[in-house]
Every structure is written in structure tokens, then in C-alpha cells.
Amino acid sequence: MIKIINNNKIDLQTLKLATSKPGLFEKSTDKFWDDEHISEQMLKFHLNPDAEAASRPKATIEAEANFIIEATEMDDKKSVIDLGCGPGLYVKEFAMTGAHVLGVDLSPRSVDYATKYVKPCLQNIEFQELNYLQLNYKDQFDIATLIFYDFCALNTEEQSALLTNIHEALKADGKFVFDVVTENKKTEVTSKTSINENGFWSPEPYLEMFNSFMYEDPKTEGLQYTIVNEDGKMRVIRIYHRLFSLEEITTMLNNHNFEVETVRKNLKGEALDSESETFGIIARKK
Description:
Rossmann fold
């Protein structure tokens, strides 16, 4: 964590750099997903049936799960891995088909919740605390899912590594189901500043400076949150969303030995059109 108050003076140059446009996919200054307060807020968003933040609203989850189940012919003969499973909302829906479902997530708090409250509901569910970039399974799953644009948050090298890992983890002709954001997404380059008494980023009062940026090669949206506490400690949180054309994502999948079988507007299965801001994709391992 960076300190911007020294000898009772604000280090304006450091603050200026912290709110400037970073290099594409430049990392955050802190691993904020493991933060005790932030992970608690994330879990609350996951479990709010009406919020579209960490997870989608309950009705959308059910609609997407129904489409995925039907499109992949998920049943009690299939094994499924849900990457970035959070508290297991999709895992539970998939497991109701009788399929054996493994949910993996980086967040200890989410995995702990899922293990305590979702796993006891059905015997064909497992959870594992794991960074899916370190996935190390071979020919084990019929279906892999990665939902809510997680793929877009990774840089190009991470996307390549993940596709390689998923390909290894899937059985012959296994299906990879995921969604991405498209180049049609309307992104406004903007900035705003607010003071929060007890907000998402900290239980203590803090100053939040938000900036959004666009990058062209590859086309990517960048969101940057500069958080300054009362004692002058500063964190910079950066989140990116790679924006894909259909040709780009198809080429990337082909280069990693996947064949695109289905492209829809979203994972609810709605029909694709020229203005779609998202793609729901089902690809088959070649």
C-alpha cells in the first residue's frame, strides 16, 4: 500500500500518477479480492437476488442455467467444472441435472460459503479454492463454464493460458461455455470523485477517485479506482474488459483447438444481432 502523506504534505505527483491512464493490463497495487472487507461486500452482491454486480439476478441465473443445460445436454452422465463459481449459484442449478459438478474460485470466503450452504444440498457437488489460471486437470470434464465475462478481465497471455488449461481439462469433444463483451459496448471515458464513510472498498472513511479509459490494441475498457484513506494510505484497483469482435474470439478459440458451435447474444440463448454488446459462446474441444 502506498502512502501519499509525508511530513504532513500530500505527495501530489504520486497522486497524479495514480489517477493517470495506466499501461494496458497494468496490475492493481493490492490483491483486493482477498481483502476481508471487500470479499464480504462481494459475497453480499453475489447473494442479492436482484443485483447485477458480482453475480446476475436470480431470474437471469435460472434462464442462463436452463439454456446451458439444454444446449450441452447436461445430465447425470456428465461432469462439469464451473470456473469462478463464487458462492455456487450456477453449480447448484447444474447439479440438479444429476451431473457431477466441481466449482472452483479464488475467493476463500465464497468457497467457504458454498461449502457450508450449497454442497449439503446435493451429493454431486464439490468446491475447491483455486485460481483457475492454475487449473491442472486432464481429460476429466465434459463441460467447462466461465460465466459473467470473466474471460474479458484477463490479459492476452492469461487468456491463452486459460484456454490451454481448459482444453487439457476437457474430455474429447468436451464443451466450453462462456460469455464475452463485444466491440459494440458503449464505453464513456470519464472520471468522478466521491467521499465515502463506509463503502465497498473500506469500512473506514475514504476518498475514491474513479477513472475509465479506452485502449485500442486490443480494444479494451479499463476501470481504475484510486482509494485514499484518512491516514494517506492509497490503493489503486484496476479492472479491465477486453472487447471482442466475433472474428477475434473465433480465431483465438481456433488457435487453441476449439471449434465454435453456438454463438448467441447471451447465455440465456437470445438471438444474436449486429448490435449485440455480448456474446454467449459454446465451443467444442477438437
